[in-house]
Sequence to fold (285 residues):
Amino acid sequence: MVAVGHKLFRMVWRGVNVALVAALLALVYSAGWEYSVRRYLMGFSDAIIPANATPGERVEAILDWMREGPPRSADPTPGGLAIRDPETTLNYRQLLDVCGTATNAFLNLARTSDLQVRRLLLLSADRTAKHVVAEVLINGRWIVVDPTYRTVMRNAKGEMLTRKELQDPQVFAEASAKIPGYPAAYNYDKFAHVRVARLPLDGLRLRGFLDRVLPLWDEQVDWSLLLERESFFVLTAAMLASFVLLLFRLFLAWYADQRLKISRFRLRLHLARAGAALFTTPEIK
Fold:
């Protein structure tokens, strides 16, 4: 039994080491990917947003580009486009005409220009998403921007509106009347920042559980970047996997030393010996 236990441990030990190496490689790759995406977005936003613009002017500059910028490419098979890749959402006309990806494009540019932003899902009675807009923090207020219609939601006086203000039917009617063809169904009666219904664990009533344990969990934490940028999602997943696997490896090392009393491959010891062999001057007798 002891021999079987040792054999099983060695199999687990090797498996964890292989998984940890894979996670670390994924971490390096995703870090480079995220860095290149940020550099691209920085250059893009610098080209369309004045350096000394106020937060409100930055919002309008992005919307002006979406309204009147140079023509974007058209893909004959838009269903195959990577809708969570910022470079793709900024460069294909079909994606800039869809509420989800248009909002993603706006959020990526706004965040790169140092605006605090988040996505907002407008929900139907059965809690399915019917429209996606953005919220931008300006002067302490989360004002609503609809990138699909290239507009900031404003009342009859031209004042920027928040989600809470748009829940008033009269205020919403005033704001939507100024936007040609704006559907009355895009109201703010029901909303969310994260669509838990799209997660495979939705059958466990995850939203209800989170609402009870962590009230306002989807509002107090900025989930937008994870949901709208694939490179950042992969980077976060790789960091989490590396951390968990490293902790598990440390536990296995302790278990081998303290409980099983078996020898194992000690990376630090071998690296120290290799360093000594390479950098220590040999004695000549």
Remarks:
- The mean pLDDT is 85.
- The longest strand covers residues 129-138.
- Residues 2-48 form the longest helix (47 residues).
- The CA atoms of residues 34 and 232 lie 6 Å apart.
